[in-house]
Amino acid sequence: MLVVDRIVLREIRLALKEPFRISSGVVTERRIFLLELHDASGATTWAECVAGEHPNYSAETIDTAWDAIARWVAPRVLGARLDGPESVHSLLERDFRGHPMAKAAVEMGCWGLAATIEGVPLAQRIGGTRTRIPTGISLGIQKTPDALVERARAAYAQGYRKIKLKIAPGSDVAFVRAVREALGAEVHLMADANSAYRLADADHLAQLDAFDLIMIEQPLGQDDLVRHAQLQRRLRTPICLDESITSVDRAEDMIALGSGKIVNIKPGRVGGFTVSRAIHDLCERSGIPVWCGGMLESGVGRAYNVALASFANFKLPGDLSPSARYWERDVVIPEWTMDAEGMVTVPRSQPGIGVAVDVDRVDALTVRTQTLARTAARPAGAAA
Ligand code: OSB
Ligand code: MG
Questions:
Q1: Cis upstream peptide for 19 (omega within 30°)
Q2: Contact 47/105 with Cβ under 8 angstroms?
Q3: How many CB atoms are closer than 10 A to CB 75?
Q4: Which candidate, 217, 207, 214, places its Cα nearest to that of 187?
Q5: C-alpha–C-alpha distance, residues 69 and 364, integer Å
Q6: Which end of the chain has the smaller Cβ count within 10 Å, N or C?
Q7: Phi and psi of 359, rounded to 5°?
Q8: How many other CB atoms sit within 10 Å of the CB of residue 82?
Q9: Mind spelling out the 3-state secondary structure of 200-251?
Q10: Are 323 and 330 in contact (CB under 8 A)?
Q11: Please, are residues 248 and 275 in contact by the beta-carbon 8 Å criterion?
C-alpha cells in the first residue's frame, strides 16, 4: 500500500545556455516546477511538472498546474490508501477534466515514491527492460541556415543519433536543405513544426520530402487529426504526432484515420506513466514506433523520461539530451550524460529515480514554495 503524506511544491529558475526557439515562442530561462513527495515512513522522492511559462505548447502553464495540483490533484492523493501507483491515474480522472501535466507530475511522483519504498529502480518498477537508450537532440530555430548547420555539425560530432530541427514558415526548407547538404545522407534528421502550418501549406511542406527526413513532427493544429490525415496522404515523409496525442483514444484515432505513422510520447502531455504505457502498448500492437520527447526538463524530469524510454517499443532515439546541453549546472547528482555512441544509460543500480537532487542548490534557486499535507485519514478513493 502507498500513502502519500505530504507534497512540497517548488519553483526554481534555471537559465538555458542558449535561448530555445520553437515556432510558437522562445524560452531563455526555464521556470522549473519540482515536487517532493513524502510518505509517512519518511521515504521521499522528487518529481517534475513540465508545464511551460506560457500556453504556447499546450493550454497548461506552470501557474495553472500549480493551482490545479494545490486545489484538486494533491487533495485527492494525499492520505488516500492506494493499492499502488497503478491506481493514481483513475483516481485523478474521475470527474476531473484536463490538466494532464499537473496530474502527471503527481502520478509519476507516486511511481517514483513506490520505487523508492520498494527498493527498486524506477525503470524496473514500471516494467521497462532496456538498459541504454539512443539519444537525439532538438535544435531550436536559428537566425540563419549557417547558424543551424554549425549546431547540427556539433551535435553530430558529439554522437547524437537523431537531430531534430525546429521549423516555422520562413525558417524551413532552406534550413533543412542546408543541414542535409552539410551533414550528408546518413544522418538521421527530422523536423518539428509545433503546429505552425495549415493544410494549405501541403505543397510547401512536400518540398521537405527531398531531404529524407525520418519524420516531420506536428505540422498542423494540436487537435486536428483529420487534416493531418489529409496531409499525410500528400507527403512521403512520415508524420509524427506530439501535441495531438493526449490520450489512448487520440492515439487510436490517429491510427484509424492515418493521421501519422509515429508517436512522440511525453508522459507529462498524456497525464503520466499509466497512459504513456497504454499508448506505447497500443502502438506496439499496431506497428507504430514511438519515441520519448522532452520538455526542457531539469535532471529530475529527465529521470522519468529515461525510465519510460526503457520500454521496448521506444524504437527511435528520444529527446533525452545530457544535462550539459541545457544548463551550466543541473540540479541532480550525477548529471545526465551521453556516451560517445550517443546513448544514455538507464539507472539500474539504486532504488528510485536514479539521481539525487542537490537540495542545497535547489533551496538556493527556489523562488516559490508551498507545502500540501493530508488533513485527516479517509478511505481509499474517497472524494477530496
Ligand atoms: O515540441 O518537442 C517539442 C521543448 C519545449 C516544448 C516543445 C518541444 C520541446 C522540445 C525540446 O523539442 C526537447 C528537449 O527537451 O530536448
Ligand atoms: Mg514536438
A1: no
A2: yes
A3: 16
A4: 214
A5: 23
A6: N
A7: -65, -35
A8: 20
A9: HHHHHHHHHHHHCCCCEECCCCCCCHHHHHHHHHHCCCCEEECCCCCCHHHH
A10: yes
A11: yes
Ligand 1: which of 22, 308, 326 to mutate, most ligand atoms within 8 Å of CB? 22
Helices first, then strands: H and E counts in the chain: 15, 15
Residue ID of nearest Cα to ligand 1 atom 8: 295
Residues framing ligand 1 (Cβ under 6 A) = 22, 57, 138, 192, 194, 242, 293-296, 319, 321
The set of catalytic residues is 166, 266
Domains and CATH numbers, the chain: 4-119+356-373 (3.30.390.10), 125-345 (3.20.20.120)
Q: CA–CA separation, 99 vs 245, rounded Å?
A: 14
Q: How far apart are CA 263 and CA 162, in angstroms?
A: 15
Q: Which ligand is nearest to the CA of 263?
A: 2
pTM: 0.96
Distance from residue 239's CA to the centre of ligand 2 (Å): 11
Task: Tell me how far apart the alpha carbons of residues 235 and 191 are, in angstroms, rounded to a whole number.
Answer: 13
CA of residue 216 to ligand 1 center, whole Å? 14
C-alpha cell at 210: 527531398
Kind of pairing between the strands at 262-265 and 216-217: unpaired
